[in-house]
Amino acid sequence: MVDIDYLNFLENILTDNRKEKFLKILENRTNHFTIAVEDIFQMHNTSAVMRSCEIFGIQELNVIEQRYGKSIDKEIAMGAQKWVDINTFDSITNCVDALKSKGYQIIATTPHENDCLMEDFDISKPSALFFGTERDGLSEEILKRSDGFLKIPMVGFTESLNISVSAAIIIQNLTNRLRNSNIDWHLSENEILEKRLAWAKNSIKDIKRIEERYFEEH
Q: Is 117 annotated as a binding residue?
């Protein structure tokens, strides 16, 4: 549980505009959908996916670093890493198991014989949307463990899109449909408090010294 007194203490350091912006943005945040990227060789693509998550209100990004183990490109993420939760996994198995244990269905974003177009996708179920590598697509393990397959309709000669472009299109489409639905997709009250605390800490430059002072006095 969030320490409300500590949260109030930190938020008193912030401007009223900052606090109001947090609340407004949190109204549109969701964990109903979560995004997972698998072994992305070019890390600027992962950073761009993170940015799309932040812009369109997806709170969590799951990154599988089984092979390349690179770090987020902060210039391309443009600060998104401060507002989106990044969960890292050292194997596909651990990532899929963790997401399934949270109640997510696993959706592979790839053309497949049983695939579904975006406009036909059932948004009512909490879903983890997986995006694969630029070179090889999603691994066989993810395809075998997927509960469904999703693709973007295309009418040109080119058969694939860059992963960051694909993610942006799908995230925007599904979150827009979600907000126009009757589904309960909002963060819980406790999740909102947790994000307010985390974001307040991320907004205060000398947070370590301020934390030490607060806990010494309390």
A: no
pLDDT in tens, 2-22: 899 999 999 999 999 999 999
pTM over 0.85: yes
Q: Is 184 exposed, middle or buried (0-12, 13-18, 19+ CB in 10 A)?
A: exposed
pLDDT in tens, 108-127: 998 777 788 888 999 999 99
Residue 72 labeled ligand binder? no
Q: Is 13 annotated as a binding residue?
A: no
**Could you give the CA distance from residue 130 to residue 95 in angstroms, rounded to a whole number?**
11
Q: Decide if domain 30-185 falls under CATH 3.40.1280.10.
A: yes
Residues near 35 by beta carbon (within 8 Å), at least 6 away in sequence: 49, 53, 58, 60, 61, 62, 128, 129, 131, 167, 171
Q: Which residues contact 123 (CB under 8 A, 6 or more apart)?
A: 174, 177, 178, 181, 183
